[in-house]
Amino acid sequence: MINIGVLALQGAVREHVKALEASDVKVIPVKRVEQLEELDGLVFPGGESTTMRRLINKYDFYEPLKEFAAKNKPIFGTCAGAILMAKELVGNVEPHIAVMDIKVERNAFGRQRESFEAILPVKGIGDDIDAVFIRAPIIQEVGSRVEVLAEFDGEIVVAKEGPFLACSFHPELTEDNRMHQYFVEMVRSCVVPA
């Protein structure tokens, strides 16, 4: 059985757990650093990136999360989770976990009242992915090893680099679990058979 964690410090944790459970994996809400040891993959949920970073620091997750990524264990970041993953943030803000060669702009689609839903083609997943954008970031720039999987209005909203997947929208807020299934397959491909 594959073990996938959802960082459970803040954000849409329960919704990610439910979406992942549809893929027949063991899902673990991660509240303690030692839980990272038992995981094959990890989700950084949407929420508020600066609050999440403050909690990551408070509960001593920063170095263990960097080590988790350094082992090339898959990580899926949605909305604020994508911000945590970026090596560069617009506005000279210091990056957080910094595992993906992407430059991200926070709240690029506007504030809460500018939230919207769209149907997007996402490479390798489907032509009709239901995407919910809430105070969503955009991926402004990507490094040479980063694959762009989806755009909206010419802006990058899904990107992948090796075992890392970043998404501007909230796939966990819909009934469409294909983004999570895609991540589960990424995790499966990284797990060495015993």
TrEMBL record:
Reaction catalyzed: L-glutamine + H2O = L-glutamate + NH4(+); aldehydo-D-ribose 5-phosphate + D-glyceraldehyde 3-phosphate + L-glutamine = pyridoxal 5'-phosphate + L-glutamate + phosphate + 3 H2O + H(+)
SUPFAM superfamilies: Class I glutamine amidotransferase-like
A molecular function GO annotation: pyridoxal 5'-phosphate synthase (glutamine hydrolysing) activity
E.C. numbers: 4.3.3.6, 3.5.1.2
Entry keywords, A to Z: Glutamine amidotransferase, Hydrolase, Lyase, Pyridoxal phosphate
Keyword Methyltransferase in record: no
Residues at which L-glutamine binds: G47, E48, S49, R106, I134, R135
Pfam entry (one): SNO
Biological or metabolic pathway of the protein: Cofactor biosynthesis; pyridoxal 5'-phosphate biosynthesis
Keyword Hydrolase: yes
Gene3D superfamilies attached to this UniProt entry: 3.40.50.880
Origin: domain of life: Bacteria
InterPro entries associated with the record: Class_I_gatase-like, PdxT/SNO, PdxT/SNO_CS
Family affiliation: Belongs to the glutaminase PdxT/SNO family.
Main function: Catalyzes the hydrolysis of glutamine to glutamate and ammonia as part of the biosynthesis of pyridoxal 5'-phosphate. The resulting ammonia molecule is channeled to the active site of PdxS.
HAMAP family noted in UniProt: PdxT (MF_01615)
Oligomeric form and interacting partners: In the presence of PdxS, forms a dodecamer of heterodimers. Only shows activity in the heterodimer.
UniProt-recorded name of the protein: Pyridoxal 5'-phosphate synthase subunit PdxT
UniProt source species: Evansella vedderi
Highest classification ranks of the organism: Bacteria, Bacillati, Bacillota, Bacilli, Bacillales
Gene (name only): pdxT
